[in-house]
Amino acid sequence: MNQKPIYQSRFESLNCCILIPTYNNEKTLGSVLQDLLLYTSNLVVVNDGSTDTTKTILKDFHEINIHHFEENKGKGEALKHGFKLAEELGYDYAITIDSDGQHYPDDLDVFLTHLEEKKPETEILLVGDRNMGQDGIPGKSTTGNKFSNFWFLVVTGTQLTDTQSGYRLYPLKVVNQIKLYTNKFELEIEIIVKSAWRKVKVRNVPIKVFYEENRVTHFRPFWDITRITILYIWFVLVSFFYIHPRDTYQDFRKKGYKRFWKENIIKSQEPAHKKAAAIALGVFVGILPFWGLHTLLVFSLAAMFKLNKVVAFLFSNISIPPLIPFIIYASYQAGSLLTGHGLAWELRPEDFDSTADIFFGLWQYIIGSFALAGIAALLLWIVFYFLFSVTNQKQVIKP
Length: 399
Description:
InterPro entries: DUF2062 (IPR018639), Glyco_trans_2-like (IPR001173), Nucleotide-diphossugar_trans (IPR029044). By secondary structure, the chain is of the alpha/beta class. It has 14 helices and seven strands. The chain has two domains: 235 residues, Spore Coat Polysaccharide Biosynthesis Protein SpsA, Chain A; 127 residues, no CATH class. Helices cover 54% and strands 9% of the residues. It has a seven-stranded mixed beta sheet, sandwiched between helices. It starts with 7 loop residues before the first helix and ends with a helix.
């Protein structure tokens, strides 16, 4: 009598399966599948047009749901097909694992435990954290991962320490509703970014990893990194001009000014100097003469300096239409003082009767806007630092 797989009852109660996309991994595929079958029989394999002995190997695994592509389409396409196939089979979640032997099957417990503990009203997407700083991890993998982690933070506001691990748990109903356009390795980035935008809790979970010296990898450093970079450029544009403003506006509208100020700013656990710095940064960027780019700048700088992006964005809206003429006028006057021309209270068309005058006036405005932005930011930082310091002190001594 065959023994029941170790985690079979847990996989069944959670409606979860394991999804393995594979391409030309004949050396490790068989052992990976045999090891996984010790834990569950809920396996789905997508053979991405392998040209080695993969088909022959898979013939020995009759208990596994297997689909073959006639030609190689890329890991992204294999995953997309696998997600749809898994949902059609009745599963709600899929744990993806690579077939190159770098992942440990006993780490399935980590994913299952988090899934068992999740709240019913929230949805989660888990990404294995391979601890990329440990010995034995290739330098190229570490560098690429740091690049991806930073830009994932910028476009989603979520801090991850590993965004490129293939060992993951996906909520199928969410993933299969997302319009996905990529079909190679970058699909894994596309999914976690778009899931985060849909308010799915994207988190890292600790896993082990084994890097064999001569392991087979189909990652093409130049082309795949280029594709990931282009994808992030697009995400930056979408997030700065739509996602971040939308989320901030919805949160602000839902809470109202008083509640938003109290919960998101006053009661924030950040130190007073960082809260004041977020406000100062917002005002500084809002005054600068980079019209149309304020959102991009404020979110980029807030992420770079690890400041509250929501607060910085709100205060960057100082440059709203009713205030724009006053900001431009004050900037021009500040520039006039800095260039030694003194204040010119009245601006008349005849003062700009040549191209040189126009360019000099523009230069005065640009110089003045930076000066005005710096002075306003510094003064606001001092005022709000004092305000937040007093408020934080009251919260500490409050019984």
